[in-house]
Amino acid sequence: MSDKKISREERRKSIERQRKNSNKQKKSGAKTWIKRGFLAIAALAVAGFLFGVVLFAVYASSAPELDEELLRDPISPVFLANDGETEIPFFTAQNREYVEYEDIPQVMEDAILATEDNRFYDHSGIDLIRLGGAVVANVTGGFGSQGASTITQQVIKNSFLSNEKTLKRKAQEAYLAFKLEQEYSKEEIFEMYFNKILMSGNTYGFGTAAEQFFGKPAAELELHEAALLAGMPQSPNRYNPFKNPQAAEERRDVVLNLMEQHGKIDAAQKEEAWNTPVESTLLPEDQRTTTEESTEYTAFMEMVVDELEALEGGYSLDEGLTIYTTLEPYVQERVNETMASDLFFDDEVESAMTVVDTQTGGISAVGAAREYEGDVRRNFATARDRVIGSTIKPLVSYGPAIEHLGWSTGQTLVDEEYSYSSGQEIRNIDGEFLGPMTAREALYRSRNIPAVKALAEVGSDNAKDFVQKVGLDLENVYESTALGADNISTVELAGAFAAFGNNGVFTEPHTIKKIVFRDGSTEEVVAPEPVTAMKDSTAYMVTDMLRDVVDTSISGATGKEAAISGLDMAGKTGTSNYSAEKLQEYNLDATSARDVWFAGYTTDYSISVWSGYPNVETPIDTASNERLLAQRLYKQVMSQISSPETASFQQPDSVTEEVIEVGTEPLRLASPFTPWSMRSEELFARGTEPSTISERFVADPDRPSGLRADVSGSTANLSWNHGSDDVSFEVSVNGEVLTTTDNTSYSYNGLEEGVTYTFRIVATQNGRRSDPASTTIEITPPPEEEPEEEPEEEPAEEEPVEEEPAEEQPAEEEPAEEQPAEEEPAEEQPAEEEPAEEEEAVETPDEPVDIPEQPEEPEEGDQEGSGSNASSNENGNGNGNSNGNGNDNGDNNGNNSNSEDDEDAS
């Protein structure tokens, strides 16, 4: 037993030892793998470091040499016109106040260092602490998401390198920054930065900016002024205090906060500067001078700079870029001439316009004001504070209805008394209501009520979706939006209308096509991509309606003043009115308007024009030719920049044209009998055109002719004639319908002696009935025989009895003697028309006009004959009454169409 116990104990211990050894081996193996892992990581780190060193050395070896002239002087950008060759003479580096380091005030240096590089005097060109924070940000946000550039690096970048965010550029920048610190003192490097940094437009250096914005040298700047200038380089145009004083003030306060944080100023100084309005010490407007060599392209170039700053990529004008723009110098010159022309009726009225390439969306020219020298607050072309009036109608009412509801240009709309859902009455400018009309007519007449109704049917969501796709940022679409909207500039309006002229393809208006970097080979295309904003059928149908706005041959067209002979174009007028309260407040009459607009386009150009007074209390007089100013300005520019070879708008295969009858609902095709005044050629998206012909003015069938009844025994054989093959005939006798047949004959059996029969034949076609043809016959019984008397009693009286029939023969020919009486009904044609009840029974469901009751049928006795002879009556003609009704309606419509209207906006 003991031996067994020992052996078991030993076995247990042996197993335990094995387990311990196994655990030791596992731990030893884990430690080995950890050591190997650390060694591998270390090796990789060393390899990565060595690789980085080698790569850095390779990149650094290809870095350019330091050039003192480039270090000290700004590198001006090059701007090229749309042709890619003509240089735009706007930005130069010559307009600069160079300031030596010893003349830079301490407050200015403190503000710059606190904002851009607080450790400038402590690092050797690269701030490793700041770089570490940027590395973390780039790992989490992607390479290039945050920079760590010191002032030294910025001098290098703005002097030698492109703006591309690549490892190569960063390596070269770091190498050259370190090299710059070895060759120049900190003071010299700060002086370079101070004088070459872009401040705004073509203003380089803080000294130049001090003179431009405050009218004083840098040495005289106060704390709040220095802080404002120090914050501008981050976004020069955005923080320009002349243009955007509110944004400039917010940025200034950020700089003041940084100055306090870094110990440059105390809290009291910060508070005092915070409480100083930015505009309090800015140079007065009448003392400001532009630093550009030419103001001819000022407004356009300001847009270029704004667009450049808004592009992703952080492009800067002080990096020696070559920028390809959309400017067409010839077009800009024509705009400038027009803005300085004698078309203006006084010295105070203002105007603005934008010319956009219909196909590309490129801005060809801009007219910011009559005299513009660079103050964005007076740039009326980009302003969004004016209501565009009825110019919005095709964009918010008719375009969306065609796109989303499948409307045709002939859609019936009724101009009648109408109110908003709030109960407020909507009015037309003439105070009249013109009744039913097509969408086309409602648009070229610029009627308000049909436009509001169209928007109500299409819905705010569809309307908002439509306008946003053509670049209009309307946050909300209300009922009143159909008559006008603000937050739209001439730039955006020209771009939106261009989509109609470009088969529904929209390209955001822009000024820059591409950018070429300093090396001359690296380029980026930055022009926006075109997008399909609507169906090509919608674009063409709206365009075709807007053609009528400028058609001088159409009565009531509101844009005739803009028409240019021989040029296929489309356009829309607009007028924004004062509210009743404002009319009273400003002591104005009802003919006063705040703004007048015109937007028009061809296949080459789209132009929008605004006219009005800077002071909204001064009105345009719509009762005079003042209301035509925008149209006249448009016409002068468009007529000069358009080529005789300008292509016409082409109808796409997705659109069909049909002649409809105006006022039918649903729309129906015009019939051969539709009056000309009620016909209209209208457009439909293919597949939506009507197939039913209107029967409103269709004539009744001709009356059967030559009706006769031949009696044979107890049968009357009827026959008649008719000129049409596709009619049927209703046969009746004594008011009872016998049959309807396609034949021109019928046999009636069962004639009885002593009964008079009046047969009537009515031709029927498509539910229409002719006047009846009728004939009457009377079946006379044979003469009664006298009882024979005995010869012996009255022999003498037998002779008269035998001769009695002979004496009555003339009576049998009586109908022949009465033939003139049969002609009589021909003089009383209306007497044979069907009773009104019978006409109503076949009246078509869509009959919009009342058909007058027909006169009662003549008495049978007027046509009665005797014996087997029949007389027929061929009188009356339904066509005369039907056409008469049609003409009356056509005349009424024609009278309505004589009224003219401009437009009205709420």
How would you portray this structure in words?
Helix content is 36%, strand content 16%. Strands 5, 6, 15, 16, 17 and 18 form a six-stranded antiparallel sheet that branches. Helix 1 (2-61) crosses helix 6, helix 3 runs parallel beside helix 9 (223-231) and helix 5 (151-159) crosses helix 7. It starts with a helix and ends in a 10-residue tail after the last helix.
Distance between the termini: 116 Å
Shape: elongated
Are there runs of 5+ residues with pLDDT below 50, and where? 1-5, 132-147, 795-906
Number of strands: 29
How large a portion of the residues is in β-strands, by DSSP E? 15-25%
Sheet having the most strands: 6 strands, antiparallel
Structural class: alpha+beta
What's the helical proportion of residues?
25-40%
Radius of gyration: 47 Å
> What's the average pLDDT?
81
Number of helices: 26
Brief overview:
With 906 residues, the chain is an alpha+beta fold. The chain has 26 helices and 29 strands. Strands 5, 6, 15, 16, 17 and 18 form a 6-stranded antiparallel β-sheet that branches. Strands 23, 24, 26, 27, 28 and 29 form a 6-stranded antiparallel β-sheet that branches.
Quick tags:
disordered N terminus; elongated; alpha+beta; single chain; six-stranded antiparallel β-sheet
Topology:
Blueprint: H1 2-61, H2 68-72, E1 78-80, H3 106-116, H4 128-141, H5 151-159, H6 167-183, H7 186-196, E2 198-200, E3 203-204, H8 206-214, H9 223-231, H10 245-261, H11 267-274, H12 298-310, E4 322-325, H13 329-339, E5 350-357, E6 363-367, H14 393-405, E7 412-415, E8 418-419, E9 425-426, E10 435-438, H15 439-444, H16 448-458, H17 460-469, H18 490-501, E11 505-506, E12 512-516, E13 523-525, E14 531-532, H19 536-549, E15 570-577, H20 580-585, E16 592-601, E17 605-612, E18 620-621, H21 629-641, E19 655-661, E20 679-685, E21 705-712, E22 715-721, E23 728-733, E24 736-741, E25 745-749, E26 756-765, E27 768-769, E28 773-778, H22 798-812, H23 814-817, H24 819-823, H25 836-841, E29 871-873, H26 878-896
Parallel strand pairs: 1-4
Antiparallel strand pairs: 2-3, 4-12, 5-6, 5-17, 7-10, 8-9, 11-14, 12-13, 15-16, 16-17, 16-18, 19-20, 21-22, 22-25, 23-24, 23-26, 26-27, 26-28, 28-29
